[in-house]
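User: quick one, fold this
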Amino acid sequence: MTAESPFKLTYATMFNPPEELHTRFEEALAKVKAGLGKEYGMIIDGKERFADEKFVDRNPANTDEFLGIFQKGTVQDAHDAVAAAKKAFTKWSRTPWQERVALIRKAADLIDQRIFEIGAAVALEVGKNRMEALGDVAETADLFRYACDSMEKNNGFIVEMGRDPLTGFQSTNFSILRPYGVWLVISPFNFPAALTGGPSAAALVTGNTLIMKPATDTPWTARLLAECLRDAGIPDGVFNYVTGPGSTLGQALIDHPDIAGVTFTGSYDVGMKIYRDFAQSRWVRPTILELGGKNPAIVSRHANLEDAAVGIVRSAFGLQGQKCSACSRVFIEEPVYDELVERLVALTNKLTIGDPTARNVYMGPVINASSYRDYQNFAEELHQSGRVLTGGKILTEGEYAKGYFVTPTLVADLPADHRLWQVEMFVPITTIAKVSNLEEAMTRANEVMYGLTAGFYGSPEEVEWFFDRIEAGVTYANRPQGATTGAWPGFQPFGGWKASGASGKNAGGVYYLPLYMHEQIRTLVKRL
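Assistant:
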């Protein structure tokens, strides 16, 4: 985190940070909390834009605490943002790619400089513990830089092709990837920095202009990223930041004919609606979707059970299970089932729940009242149909009284045909099953419509079998840092198969940036 320290913060290394991270986080938290309650405008064409209607961003750990006041953008605001981005596209798309890279790198540097302040905002706004919050912001800066690296490594995606064998002529052919136009990024609450910033950087560095539309639960983090883009010198109109309901503002953006492409991360139902709505245009437009998961961990009788237990619990209950990569299903071979379950229960019962900004807390609150109700409904259903081993209840007393606090929940003996083996719950609930062999485990692991992440614990020979058979875009083996979670740009590019993703290419990876461009072949013939 500093020039003097060799420590690099990632989701794999965050479990043993240097003391400096805690000290600096606490300093930043005090500074950020002293300024709570401010009003933030939208940013359209480089100018602050205020709406007649507002909404309040609240702390899910203490709903009496107002974090900020934000604008409830209108259809007209959406149209104005598109017009500004369209106007800016002509110049930005023709800006040499090296200059775009330099500006995005400058924005990444600003994110690094502000990591503790932005991280404090993430912890307050989302309910992430401090290390997860700092990780979200650090990942964002790395996603910015990875996009820049990709442009440089590929020389701006300009490739000379073969020369036509013409007598008396010289024929040259170049493949050039060029931006589409105005790109819309609709981001989720759970990674409001990385899943806003990553696709935004990809869109901008490739020459598209941008509209950032964050989740209504988390407008603050996206605003802080927008300020980094602004302060880095990104020209007016090249990026625009709007806030408001998805049903009005968001739909107006999706329906606008001048939106050239969209990146959406969120629920399957909303993503598929966007996909269908976006198709109602004069031609096919690129649609990059990441739509959740129902991620399995398979544990062989040959597994290191200590690694398996730690990895599963970290992935099941990090960010209160509100990750599309959360480990929500565990399949354990019968000979080690009882011992591993005992370990899982013991580790889960040790997790500290409370104010996510506190140093010793692992689990904060779920994001809002809707998720709070979902947890209660799922827990009631599981109490009736399975055997709840840990948790299964909400917390309402003392420090928990004003927040959306729930307990991490492990459930066994749930019938194999129960619907909650298939449904993405997005709360801290994980179901566990005993299997006779690995073939049975793999069949059950693959039988859901999702294919985002998956984990395995077993022998080296079994690992190869797992990688070959599992239907998922991000796969991990024998990883105590997280059975199904912890992807990082440049290390584990993130994306899913089947109902989990639309492009088949993973963010933060070698094939991602071309999704934001279309190909033009340039043939020039000269007489000799």
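User: anything notable?
Assistant: The first helix runs from residue 19 to 34.
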